Amino acid sequence: MSSLQTAINARTSSNLLQLASAQSRSQVLKRIKIVLEKHKEQIFEANLEDIAYAQKEVEAGRLSQSLFKRLDIKGENEAKFETMLKGIDEIDMLEDPIGRISMHRELDEGLVLKRVSCPVGVLLVIFEARPEVVVNIACLSIKSANAAILKGGKEASKTNRVLADLIKQAILSVLDENSSSNNDCPEFPINAIQLVDTRDEIHELLQLEKYIDLAIPRGSNALVKYVQNNTRIPVLGHADGLCSIYIDQNCDINKAAKIVVDAKTDYPAACNSVETLLVHADSLSECFPAVAKALIDSKVVLHLDSKSKSALLDSGIDFNTNASYIVDAVPEDYNTEFLSLELAVKVVSNIEEAITHINTHGSKHTDCIITSVESNGEYFMNKVDAAGVYMNASTRFADGFRYGFGAEVGVSTNKTHARGPVGLEGLTIYKYKLYGIGQAASEYGPGKKQYTHRDF
Amino acid sequence: MSSLQTAINARTSSNLLQLASAQSRSQVLKRIKIVLEKHKEQIFEANLEDIAYAQKEVEAGRLSQSLFKRLDIKGENEAKFETMLKGIDEIDMLEDPIGRISMHRELDEGLVLKRVSCPVGVLLVIFEARPEVVVNIACLSIKSANAAILKGGKEASKTNRVLADLIKQAILSVLDENSSSNNDCPEFPINAIQLVDTRDEIHELLQLEKYIDLAIPRGSNALVKYVQNNTRIPVLGHADGLCSIYIDQNCDINKAAKIVVDAKTDYPAACNSVETLLVHADSLSECFPAVAKALIDSKVVLHLDSKSKSALLDSGIDFNTNASYIVDAVPEDYNTEFLSLELAVKVVSNIEEAITHINTHGSKHTDCIITSVESNGEYFMNKVDAAGVYMNASTRFADGFRYGFGAEVGVSTNKTHARGPVGLEGLTIYKYKLYGIGQAASEYGPGKKQYTHRDF
């Protein structure tokens, strides 16, 4: 099928989905779970084929270990697969994001305005490696009444294909059942979820802003940048996750060490891991050495500026034993998302310098202050321009599940539409519905009819 | 000043504005009004110069009459100028859009998440002709704590410059006063509002997505398209306003005529005027001829398809007398925003065909159904994909003032961020503030601490 036809199918599906009731969307979600469960052996088989092929790619140096690790859909004792299925239930149980009224206003007697949430329309989601994303995004899209075009990584192509086919099979089986029983939703679109296989298609789809309303790239910096630079479709997501933690003048040393170690080591490849540590000069003699020691104990390589290096030397840490964990920082380190057990360290003379550094070098993802002075915390949180601004908590909390959104399509560093972890709400927009009884705008104005502008 | 320096100034101002209290923003708004009032003769003088120059441009055929008409800032008995000043009060009195909490959730004991509205950051607003837009946008930006870079049309350059200088003077006078009285807001940024003069600067500024968060073009289709095609900054606005009205099978003939005439003739050059009339075949014999007659009486030229032309002929309208108001429609008419007293007419055999036509040819601005069957109205409103979907009311109501927003930055046909008439809310986004007491993310999970996810 041509990319244009795929996009047209998605748009047509989106038009039908505007009318899909919450019940019918829930029915499809439940059926998807049943069909996937029933055909799990088929999914595991395809997955094994992908893994076998990827193994060779890793050996040939054409695929990274980290991507390879994410390919497996089964997990130990099928735990990963079960989590994926449970995720469908969780999405199904979330409150319906469609049809919510955020404004209800009388403009005049008999002229009533409602602002009602509705799906964005057609989503293009591009991701790498993890095949369960097919199921996750398909379910989020169906829940929010959006049509979706999915493109996974070629390393998981066989698994992705089976999953997409099973999703279509589930939709078809609901349709069959409903057409015979005259049930709700005879028109649920079979092309609500489409999978495309080749990279060429992505380039073509990115040109079709007439049919596609939102592009969501999930994956490497290179993937996100490629999408951002090659489309006029609005892009939701983040290219970089350059998070910083600032250790203020006064703070609890133990808490500081615990937060920084967690933020760096819990999952170093994650976008919400810390990459830069800023230290107030007054915290150099006591707090910083304790934090540095805890980091080195966790095998973190510290890229130190001259002041922090001196402080560490003064603290009595053995530079010979720990030589492999201590390197001199270069300017580029402060613009680097290491995604590994490495951390850039810089000393600042006050909170203002820390904020300026973050607003200049950060990626507006998540930044944290560790302080025992609440007013400093508020000041930092107000003045740092980022999706997440934290006081005394690890940057790793920046995540849709942790925020209680149930599911997320990604984390956005955009300044418009949706920011931070994006759940179902980010897949909706609104329309204004105006109910009249024959009014003309020219009837209103000075000396004529007046608007009442009364909220219900 | 270079464009880069302008953008950096704006970003620095935006950082300061994050902390500007509602009181200080209000103080500046009030001062702007006072300063503009005090220097009105200076403004009128500059405006007369612009008008004199523009007059020559019109005579030479280099400026349109419609742009020329919008240049005057004074109006009869200074009425336009007074309206502009009154607009400052109105913006000042609107509820503060900053600091609103849209989520307040305990993630765990001592770990509290707040979603708080904040300014988008730096706006780039590009507009044509009407110089009062300088004041209007400056005040909206200040109210919403955004920094703004403004570029007006060169036809109003002298007036724009005086207005921008007076706005800066107002900010400076507040700063002077506060620095001596140790008052609130010693740091209100003098570069909060900057005016740029040349078109070259626009092209340069559109490349500076690092410093500019949102571009808002207001003006011709060509201007908006130029901005959309030349930047990676998110663009808010609409290139086209191709609104349609569909006359359903059953409807009140008088209301239909009244609504369609208003939507076409109240202000034909406006984006919310109707451009296409779709008529259900069953309404051809009675309703349509009455509507057509009312339109012709209002000097509207009808571009008729063969069926609507036959119906009009059958109705007994004199084609000879009205020859200049009856032309044969060509396919391109249904993609045309006439912006004048012309209307494309097409007959459809059912509501579905009307919806498909609108979703294919429309610009997602505002579309209306005229019907006496409420369920048809709801169906149409749900399935038409547009910022505004109306039942039995003129498309001309699509406007921030009419919706009761007090002020608007424009009308958006985007599918993300803000849709329809955009007021202060569209100039805000949110950040997530997380307040902890030293929590690490690795403390949570199966067999460990659990999230409470309890909304306050």
UniProtKB/TrEMBL annotation, chains A, B:
CDD domains, A to Z: ALDH_F18-19_ProA-GPR (cd07079)
GO process annotations (BP): L-proline biosynthetic process
EC number(s) from the headed UniProt entry: 1.2.1.41
A Pfam family recorded for this sequence: Aldedh
Top-level lineage group: Eukaryota
Alphabetized InterPro entries for the sequence: Ald_DH/histidinol_DH, Ald_DH_C, Ald_DH_N, Aldehyde_DH_dom, G-glutamylP_reductase_CS, Glu-5-SA_DH, GPR_dom
Class of the enzyme per the UniProt entry, highest EC level: oxidoreductase
Aldehyde dehydrogenase domain boundaries: 10-330
Keyword Oxidoreductase found: yes
Key words, A-Z: Amino-acid biosynthesis, NADP, Oxidoreductase, Proline biosynthesis
Catalysis: reaction(s): L-glutamate 5-semialdehyde + phosphate + NADP(+) = L-glutamyl 5-phosphate + NADPH + H(+)
Pathway in which the depicted protein is active: Amino-acid biosynthesis; L-proline biosynthesis; L-glutamate 5-semialdehyde from L-glutamate: step 2/2
Molecular function per GO: glutamate-5-semialdehyde dehydrogenase activity; NADP binding
Role: Catalyzes the NADPH dependent reduction of L-gamma-glutamyl 5-phosphate into L-glutamate 5-semialdehyde and phosphate. The product spontaneously undergoes cyclization to form 1-pyrroline-5-carboxylate.
PANTHER family for this protein: DELTA-1-PYRROLINE-5-CARBOXYLATE SYNTHASE, GLUTAMATE SEMIALDEHYDE DEHYDROGENASE
Family the UniProt entry places it in: Belongs to the gamma-glutamyl phosphate reductase family.
Name listed for the protein in its UniProt record: glutamate-5-semialdehyde dehydrogenase
